[in-house]
Amino acid sequence: MTGKSVYLTIGAAFLLCSHTYAQEQAITEAPESFRKNAILATVGTVGLMGAYNLHYERMLLSSKKSSLQGLWAKAGIGGWGVWSSGGPYQSLMLGTMTGKKNSHFELNFGLARMVDESAYDNARDINEYLGEPQPPKSNYIHIRAIGTAGYRFQKPASRFLFRCGAGYPETLYLGIGTAF
């Protein structure tokens, strides 16, 4: 046997014995999910109307297979103002978001207990000046529908989140938060 034939025989045996993995499927990693809790601070204004709030949100349902990422419950406190009236408010909302990567469309809706503190103070001062009985504060507490629609930047399993959009009572808003 010549040197060339020995090398060819060894090379052919090596090629026949080696494994080819070209047709095997790659192991897919499970997509990371979002953290279950978050705290968000939001500020919004348009002209003489605006609001600020602090929300806690908790993931109720999650979906890794569809573009709808899940369902969140949100509870918040804040303040609102319009021209010469305003006051504190408390809110409860449900929210969802779409998108698979870092950028999402966020949609929230719910109810808020809004106190018109300014109007109550004015009515109380006028009644005191006129010597009339004080108005009940319950006349200045309203339950209102609230909601937001906007953009949310949040990477799966990341702590930082940023949001902006339009809604009531925040009008045009910007917000930041942390997930845990």
TrEMBL record:
Q: At the top level of its lineage, which domain of life is listed?
A: Bacteria
* Keyword Transmembrane belongs to the record: yes
What are the protein's UniProt keywords? Membrane, Signal, Transmembrane, Transmembrane helix
Q: Where are the transmembrane segments?
A: 38-56
Give the residue range of the signal peptide: 1-22
| Protein name in the entry | Outer membrane protein beta-barrel domain-containing protein
